[in-house]
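Exam revision sheet. Question 4 asks you to relate a sequence to its structure. Input first:
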Amino acid sequence: MKATRGFTALAALVLANALLTLSGMLKSPERVVGVGAASPHAPPRTQVNNYYDVTVSGAWNGNSPAVPGDTSDDSVAINATIAYASSQGGGIVYLPAGDYAIGDPSVPSGQILIPYDNIQLVGSGLSTRIILYNAIGTTGAPTPIPRAAVQVERSGAIPTNLANTIIRDLLVMTSEWYFGNTTNWRTPAHPGVVGLRLAGTQQALVENVFINGYDNGVLLVAGNSGILMNHVSGNVCRVGLHISSAENGTGANTHTPDPASWEWQTENRFDHCVFSGGVGGQYADVGVLLEGYAVGDQNFHDLHALWCSYGVQLVYSPRSGSNGYATNIVLEGFVSDWCSTLAMQAIGYSDVKVDMAFVGVRGFWFDQCSNCVVSNSEFHTPDAGQSAITLVDCNVMRMVGNGFNGFQSGINSAGLSFSTVTGCTFVGPSTPGNLVNLLASTSNNSQFNSLTGNSFQASGGGSIVEASTGADYNYVFANTYGNGVSQPQVYGAHSVRNPP
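Answer key, structure tokens:
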């Protein structure tokens, strides 16, 4: 990789996000008046009537409280408190500062389960740590390994969605990722082990939650809607955030939901989230993965995907007997850098909108997509020979107001039709390169595309090139050319070039 990576702008964005996240997580919670026993700890901010401290002995935990910092499994006490809160109509289950061990194979669940409505699982910020032991499987892993350290899912046959779940102010990690451990430091968990799993939930809030060292940091399966995640971070996870309309998204889940209602993932929002794979990207395959035939209406604002193989991956998988639903994905304020394969890959999606992105090293790849927009974004300091945006067999794509700096090709297309590139600035690398390629693919021509109002510059020389076969009815006009850029070469029949 080149030494220069646009550190100043990226560092400012990452630092701003980190400060916002930490300020939220480290904020001291205000006292609450509730029916639970008085706690020596500062309880959470939310004003509710039912409040239960898992470390205080009482009816809510069978007088067997959780003891943070010891070696015994705390999931029994925490789950008992959750069940008791549900019997009282819901409430806050509070975990004061400390280390809560889970994952003992001799314990019935070995994980924290929320199978009821109106439950709030609340910690005290970064100092509340839920630690799944033996998650990698090198030293006596639980058999079977829990599907998730924290699981939100109605038990049994899932008659209805869960509602009104809140999880906030927690650090969820594996013992192998535990601070100070030098044996398996910064190693993702055993395949199938998830930090936080939501299945069949609606109107849930996950806020100020850090998840470190899991196979999947956050997994959404079996139909979720109305989920808001705010200041959520997944670090050194194989997949930071995984949204799947297939129940076997991680290969470790068991029940089969009704495909007519349970597998749709819609209307979820993710604000100020960071998913990273560690230095070099060797610990993460994907920062954010959306897969299946029914994942749509997902909104991301201020999303950071760093040091991964793929920053964001959108994969539509057609299913027999279903038209599918893979549309309406918004990434606003997206930052991706140091990804080893692609900053974003979209396959089979429509209406993907990326605005105000800051992308380095690797670019975007759209395959069989339609009606997508990339606007007001900066692509900078790539590795040699990279394309900023690759479009394969796409149509009705719009690239508006973007800056491409140093990429071998700003836009490299094959089989593109009815698309627009306007108001963009292309600055090529020091070696000659074609700043825009409009080529025919093996199955589609490249036609009815418009390149207008753009600025092309390349100190090493370069041109706009269209293939001589299958590149028809394209319009290249009202652009400016300078600093070693050749005039556009248009070979297709019926194409228009201005200047000629």
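Marking note for examiners. Residues 11 and 391 are 29 Å apart (CA to CA).
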